[in-house]
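Deliverable D5.2: sample structural annotation.
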Amino acid sequence: MQINGLHLLLTYQCTFECDHCFVWGSPFQQGTMTLSDVRRILHPAKDLKTVEWIYFEGGEPTLYYPILLRSVRLAHDMGFQVGIVSNAYWAEGLEDALEWLRPFAGLVDDFSVSSDLYHYSEQISQQSRLAAAAAAQLGIPLGTLSIAQPEQSEASSVQGKLPPGESSIMYRGRAAVKLSDRIIHQPWSNFQECPYEDLIDPGRLHVDPLGYLHMCQGITIGNMFTDPLYKLLETYEPAAHPIVGPLIAGGPVELAYRYEVPHQDAYADACHLCYETRRALRTRFPEILAPDQVYGVF
């Protein structure tokens, strides 16, 4: 497997505790990378010679601002294109936003701001608008990530599309627990494929503060802090992977069948069935269905 992007979950900690969060981000979450951890990730990524993009996200990566800034500089100096994902909680005024963003000018190729009704009281928040204005002044490319409410997502399946700039919910992580009962469920037998992730050749992977390398949040293929990155990629065999194999063969339905996991008659989407099945299998595959943070175990 070759990858061209690596997304570093700099921290699981966040200023918010959004109902839709894949990784259960929270002010109370544990797990943050040190500078040493970042180096242990960036250097092997550079050695691959295929990785072009490094993203820093979370949680909320700007909570550890000095570490984030130094990490961005390291990645930039190593020749990577660099991205950051933030909720822009720090953009309380234009002057403030300029001060926060100025050190990243010339270093960041994509600054993405999350703004929706999970984070703020309006879809495109004042913080997002101020961050965008500051980024424009500084020449930093900035975009907005906005996730629709469950009712909007359900309506879009009938109408054909969401409003421009909005994405639908995937019911995994906290969303599976907090939001899945807000839409009409579909028969569980419908979910015979993974509609969101390319589990054979993903192109990009996530690595968290504990070193786990994620195909999808909570499905790991090893740990970068115990095994070399190149080895984890070279030895990855999708069909033989205990979780990925069944998902490729027949989606979440096959995963439940394969391990005889009890199931409900209906679920919000494929992610919902997959996530609940994985939660039931964690004691059987503790090093693959990891870490606790992604499964809401604090």
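Annotation notes: DSSP finds nine helices and eleven strands in the chain. Residues 244-258 form the longest helix (15 residues).
The annotation will be released with the project's public dataset once the embargo ends.
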